[in-house]
Amino acid sequence: xxxxxxxxxxxxxxxxxxxxxxxxxxxxxxxxxxxxxxxxxxxxxxxxxxxxxxxxxxxxxxxxxxxxxxxxxxxxxxxxxxxxxxxxxxxxxxxxxxxxxxxxxxxxxxxxxxxxxxxxxxxxxxxxxxxxxxxxxxxxxxxxxxxxxxxxxxxxxxxxxxxxxxxxxxxxxxxxxxxxxxxxxxxxxxxxxxxxxxxxxxxxxxxxxxxxxxxxxxxxxxxxxxxxxxxxxxxxxxxxxxxxxxxxxxxxxxxxxxxxxxxxxxxxxxxxxxxxxxxxxxxxxxxxxxxxxxxxxxxxxxxxxxxxxxxxxxxxxxxxxxxxxxxxxxxxxxxxxxxxxxxxxxxxxxxxxxxxxxxxxxx
Length: 363
Hints:
This protein is an alpha+beta fold. Helix content is 61%, strand content 12%.
């Protein structure tokens, strides 16, 4: 690969729906304050600022506690898979936070009352602490349950992304391995082409070796990545066709009909070379007559349709893949595109073989 794959994060903090949580928190306290004011007015009292102060002070202190607790509880995300331990970790803060809540809330209320020249009347401190601690415990339990749900959901999303990235890297490695399997196979067949001419025509063999060196350099660069633009694939294929045409002479014609709008599309590397290679191995090499080979590429809706055909080959009844190249190609298509990546082989009339690849358009 030309660039290293992005590493999979293993300790990234779980995201959480901050806006949704803050909105719900604001609505909750707005309802609490509204109910308190309505009850106070219904009892015939006229000083609305008092219930606003009572609930407002509770809201202010509770918000501070929630903000501190949220920052602290993220460290316990490792316990989310064991809920009882997570809740136990949170529960140890109930009593100290409850005491802080009562002291700070009542300090604020006493301070405001003193500032306006009044006295804040309430019951004995033991009963105040008992009453407020019970209320705070209910609030704490509800908030902790909501927090557990949000943190669990966020952790699930992070884990899902982590798994998807791991699978993508695994698939990428598999595709690269399958791509690289074609390189030795391609080299072997190309060298056979040179070997077939070296004894009979040294000058032609020299030309073939020069072209082969350039072709293998391009093929090696291309095989370092699992995908490439179709134009690069066609350029490589044309170089391979020139070498084979040099070997077999004028009796072989290779024609390319590539729609211009398909050349930027991304395809698996060395996608068409095994198909063209089979035309020579199973068609041209088995006859002494003229052979015409065509390579076409066009769009068909959202799919890219690639065809390599000859007018001399023949598929035996029940034939599946023709050798390593097509078997590897089928695996790569399945790994990359699932059911949308298809390789089909069929006999033409009156003779010849058509190999067709259909895959989703991607650029």
